[in-house]
Write a structure and sequence with these properties.
three-stranded antiparallel β-sheet, alpha+beta, about 120 residues, two-stranded antiparallel ribbon, single chain
Length: about 120
């Protein structure tokens, strides 16, 4: 899943906690990259808890739950919306080079030459 703000994809994870953060936007789980976290606009565009105003929301099994106060509500899905609707206007999911990133990760994992 790319960053909802800029479309960047996570690289291979390192040990420890991830600098990427989760949030909810338009009742869908999204990720925010570390660069966009530094921009106040990215956090301001996230959904907020109706009970406490926190942006620490998580989406699971059709529910939105606040990780701060525990308030839950049903996620409202717009059937006309698609996952690509949350990709920034300058990026398209097919343009992010995901297939090349996956091939490179598999090559590193299996420690093999990509031509074999």
């Amino acid at each position: 899943m790319p960053c909802f703000q800029c479309g960047a994809r996570q690289t291979d994870p390192v040990r420890g906690s991830s600098p990427w953060k989760r949030g909810v936007r338009a009742d869908r789980q999204v990720l925010i990259c570390p660069d966009c976290l530094a921009v106040a606009d990215a956090v301001a565009r996230l959904d907020r808890c109706v009970a406490c105003g926190s942006v620490a929301l998580g989406c699971r099994l059709g529910e939105i739950e606040c990780r701060d106060c525990g308030h839950t509500r049903e996620a409202v899905r717009d059937e006309g919306a698609h996952a690509g609707d949350l990709v920034p206007s300058g990026a398209h999911p097919a343009d992010t080079g995901l297939s090349e990133e996956v091939a490179a990760a598999l090559t590193r994992f299996f420690k093999r030459d990509p031509g074999t």
